[in-house]
Amino acid sequence: MKNLLLRRAFVLPLAATFLGSPASAQSLPSPDYREATVVVFNSEVPASRRLAETYAKARRVPAANLVGLPLSSAETITRSEFVRTLADPLRKTFTEKGWWTMGSGPEGAQVTASTRRVLAVMSGVPLRISEDAPAAPPASPAAPPSPTPSGGQQTDAASVDSELTLLGVPGATVAGVINNPYFRKDEAFATGAPPAMMLVGRIDGPGFPVCERLIADAVAVEKSGLWGRVYLDLAMKGAGYEEGDQWLLEAGRTFGTGGWPVIIDAHPQTLPTNYPMTDAAVYLGWYIRSPDGPFLNPAFRFRRGAVATHIHSFSATSIRGQSNEWCGPLLTKGAAAVLGNTWEPFLGLTTHLHVFSARLLKGYTLAEAAWMATPALSWMNVVLGDPLYRPFANRRTAPPVRESEEFQVYQELLTRHGASDDHQALLRVQCSASHASGAFWSR
Fold first, then answer.
1. Where do the domains of the chain lie?
2. Whose CA, among 180, 303, 407, 443, lies 20 to 30 Å from 92?
3. What region does 300 belong to: left with phi over 0, alpha with psi -120 to 50, or beta?
4. Do strands 158-159 and 128-129 pair parallel, antiparallel, or not at all (unpaired)?
């Protein structure tokens, strides 16, 4: 994935369309991850401890599952510091508390059974592991690597969180990507992933008030489900870049069949700065280095609980700023679930957004959906937001909510009556007239 800024140009009128057809899939039953969740915080940062306590209370995680470690306050640490201050002390805690049963595996000693499967990492814990060994020359941008890791990318740099997924495999090789055994699974992590693997998500962002909001939003929105519009911004870069656009288009079809109004920008330029991106519950885009388009409008806000990701090589280089890169700004604008990359991942090894979207809509947690859609471990990926957040689990059964009623009615009509282009237009007229709202009109 090239790291280039696109030349700003006048944006042509939006190529907007609604995709949809009947949807009947029901959300999946969710395992109770409360007892299985370990909350990790930086004991040197008082706000990190308070955030851990807030999260544990909101998710009813036992107090005994809170683990504070004296860590650096920097976002980036060395590999040796990661092992010495974070990985080894965590492994010691798991062993001493009897949360793990150890045995032997291909990499030596590893976990064969575990009662704790989820790591909720709090703000204050370092984000990135810097490279100790020289990296191989980057692959040609015109020929990105296969989505299945082959070990060709040799670097020991990684996100802290991706490395923590391998906490139960102490001897794992770290000089390059490791195949994710949970990739493309369609089964709860509790039963579908090896016991040595951890499910990792991070409550983090530009300031502790944002982090506290992530917790509150996830808990609140789950009661009624997430509702609104889906916005997809294609890159349209041509040969060698089609894969990212195909992910977004497939995600659009998935949301459309689930009864969502989906709006697609099919122009090479991004959405214009003041484009009225109203009721944005999901945003997926890619390729621009820094926030652009509607995100430059000071008045723009996502709907509460929104899922938002812009694929870029360095979208999570830092998540503390409100205007640099992508993850921090998306969180600042109100998103509750954001995916990013701490270093260059190459496109095929980023989270595959079509798989991520499909799993979220089935009712999986944010962390489950993200790691099901990510082909590599010990790599660059990070999941920002409550790892137990299930934004779509209750959309079928929740009572009507005033601020989302149009979207609930639209989904119900679409599910009942089908979704040809003509029928969708009729449904938009009916919904707009019956609710005195223009929410479903598009150009």
1. 8-398, 402-434
2. 180
3. beta
4. antiparallel
Report the C-alpha gap between 260 and 230 in whole angstroms.
7
| Alpha carbons 251 and 263: distance in angstroms, whole number | 12
Helix (H, G, I), strand (E, B) or coil at 104: strand
Segments in 18-159 forming alpha helices (H): 46-59, 79-81, 88-96
List pLDDT tens digits, range 405-423: 677 766 766 666 565 555 5
- What type of residue is 419? A
Residues 59-109: tens digit of each pLDDT: 999 999 999 999 999 999 999 999 999 999 999 999 999 999 988 877 677
DSSP string, 294-306: GGGSTT--PPTT-
Give the Cβ contact number of residue 443 at 10 Å.
7
Helix 208-222 / helix 46-59 crossing angle, nearest 10 deg: 0
**Do residues 233 and 286 make contact, with C-beta atoms less than 8 angstroms apart?**
yes
Handedness of CA 49, 50, 52, 57 (dihedral sign): positive
Token pair recorded at residue 324: 């640099």
Question: Over the Cα atoms of the chain, what is R_g?
Answer: 21
How far CA 304 is from CA of 65, 383, 405, in Å, comes to: 28, 18, 15
Task: Return the structure tokens found at 403.
Answer: 């601020």
What 3-state class would DSSP assign to 328? helix
**Location of structure tokens 């509150």:** 216
- Within 8 A by CB and 6+ apart from 50, the residues are 208
Q: Which residues contact 365 (CB under 8 A, 6 or more apart)?
A: 30, 33, 189, 199, 387, 388, 389, 390
Q: Is the pTM of this model over 0.90?
A: no
Full strand arrangement of the beta sheet holding 76-77: 76-77, 128-129, 158-159
> What does the pLDDT look like over 378-392, one tens digit per residue?
999 999 999 999 999
How many Cβ atoms are within 10 Å of 36's Cβ, its own excluded?
19
